[in-house]
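Chain A, query sequence.
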Amino acid sequence: MFQIKNFLDNDDVRIVDRKGPFTVAEYIRDLSVTPASAMTAYYSNEMNVRKRQLVCNMGETAGVTCQAGAMQWSVGNVNATTGIKGVGDLFGKAVRGKVTGESAIKPEYKGDGTLVLEPTYKHIILLDTSDWNESLVLDDGLFLACEASLKHKAVMRSNFSSAIAGNEGLFNLSINGKGICAIESRCPKEELIEIVLQNDVLKVDGSFAIAWSNSLNFTVERSGKTLIGSAASGEGLVNVYRGTGKILLAPVDSFPSQY
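Chain A, predicted structure.
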């Protein structure tokens, strides 16, 4: 038996989202400051730059898979495993981690206690795969945690040459099954743009898409029909999503060089 006091019930902490076993806690003010950093902390808070943490209630799920090194503390009957089910599974996860840029081995936590992940200044967004026809693709580096029942797979875009030319990764991480997934985004949920396609096409100039339906055909193409047309438009290569599904777009580049 355990009790957690002065955490989620702290008047300086608020709950910004809750889905399945996951709760997103946000620190309204950063009180752990020095006189030298107080002004920066004050204006950071005014501009919605705040610490956030993902809290996992293990009693509401069969298990949670996290990004490697994300765990901060746990209480109660919470046990960590590698989630590896044999040599073949290890090899598959190693290959998937190599091509997607994610950690090869993501620890799985099981039990009936509480698991708390490291604080982050990024925005933690909870996605229900049921809203994505139980299969969605994430942009590189966004995965934080998900229910262990969800399956991970590396998906390859359609055209190899254009991916290389566009300086984009060839593979992305796909989350499949029924459950909740948590991602880290530079953009808050309130500013994300949702595009729903019905046998149509979306073209994006840059890494603004953070998640999209696995049913969409994702390629990198010239913005114009010809090289001269692309050069004249000033856009060059664009990310293209075709088919039926939806895309979440951020109003700013997902991975700017200064971030």
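The first helix runs from residue 38 to 46. The CA atoms of residues 161 and 246 lie 25 Å apart.
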